[in-house]
User: Fold Alpha-glucosidase from Rhodococcus wratislaviensis.
Amino acid sequence: MTQSVESTATTVASRHPEAWWKTAVVYQVYIRSFADGNGDGIGDLTGLRSKLPYLADLGIDAVWINPWYPSPMADAGYDVADFRDIEPSYGTLAEGEAFIAEAHELGIRVILDIVPNHTSSEHRWFEAALRDEPGARERYIFRPGRGPAGDEPPNDWQSAFGGPAWSRLDTGEWYLHLFAPAQPDLNWEHPEVRAEFENILRFWFDKGVDGFRIDVAHGLAKDPALPDAGERLPGSQHTDPHPAWDQDAVHEVYRGWRAVADAYDDRVFVAEAWVPGNDRLARYLRPDELHTAFQFDFLRAPWRSDSIRAVIDDALEQAATVGAPATWVLSNHDVPRTVTRYSRSQPDHLVETDWERARWALEEPNHDLGRRRARAAALLQLALPGTAYIYQGEELGLEEVEDLPDDVRQDPTWFQTGFTDCGRDGCRVPIPWSNDAVPYGFSPFDAEEDTWLPQPGHWAPHTAEAQAGHPESVLTLYRRALELRPDYFDTPHGVEWLDTPPGVLAFARGAVQCWVNTGTEPAALPEGSTVVLGSIAGITGGLLPSDAAVWLSEPGSGESR
Assistant:
């Protein structure tokens, strides 16, 4: 044993002795693509409620549901028209309340998505702003244009989806939208905006919701001068400061939100904060701010042991400075699926989503290889101290659907980049549940509508039904890992790195070890150790094959699983 990284668990436990969220496994439900109960091709609450037994059997502690609020769907629900109701195509508010109660009966907590950076252009506030009602435009960011006629945008900011971040009204004024034009940015310097969102949090907490994932948590506050950002190089959105992102004023907002949450029992926030480094991320996790934040460097790391270890070390060290747990994520609805990221050659740098998508046309994927690596990565993720998030379909080993027809794509990225970046639709394809042909049980057998995004014709072996009884399936691996994780890794022990050959990383947490081989040659395992769980079958003879992982117990401390 060569190096120890201080565990965050001890400090978190001392601050929150009964904090469920410090070690939870959370399952992300992208509701449009989870399960369709009424046959319209769109996932809904009826479908979600029908799958609660599946989620309970999987062994997760909580679900995070992507926005379920009324929305025109300019950005798949992240353009919210009403934060206190349910999107009609998903169901009703009463059905939402019933889902929360049913999940709680099964021991599953419920985390909702909150979208505070912007609203829908059909939100009543923005509609009032368009009518130029007194004070209405102060809730958003309206500015006069530049140039003699005011026909140039107020600054050079670009939308995250491509193109300018400003749109002009017929009256000549411009409004800011860091995403789609249908998603106008709110003015978080306005006290009414702050009060409204604190009341929205209370509304859902009162209905039993256990927490919120905060969309674009690094947004909200802008440099008040709205200065030009200057030329931005590809991929720099995660490494270079920007006057629209990660401004210090945002932390005052989250101190207010933490006070709201602390008035209830066991509520939690998780931040989606894309920031230049983990030192900046740690600022969101100070004791009077947010509880957790996604560790996105983990999903950006290539399948290389040195890169993965560097990310883990940095994440744990920075989280420990503020007494927070690290929050590990391999995939979500905004990035290419894990199987696909690992299906091609692996670079020597962190991977940006646009870089990854750009190489799809240049290099054929090997999904069998990607799936093998993704299985190993799952054991690594679930062995680390802290919280783990699983995106729906990861437990089925699904790959990105790269070849969707252009005419079915719906992601605004596709349109705002002038049809040059295919966007995120490929990781949002409805997941397969059963049967041998589309829609694979996603919709009822007599559904009259096609799924909102088409499923590939080769997914029959990857349905939950096909995998449920297979001892070597990805689903079986996840179920077994989630069953064993509390017994072996619910421990205050941090990460203690072990000596390994190049291409291999291994660490101990107490009497349990996790070994991961990203190299091309088998690696020797410790003599006398016992295999608890392997990412592939047949790990014997003291050797760990390439692109595989294993949990080991020291002699006398466990049995083979």
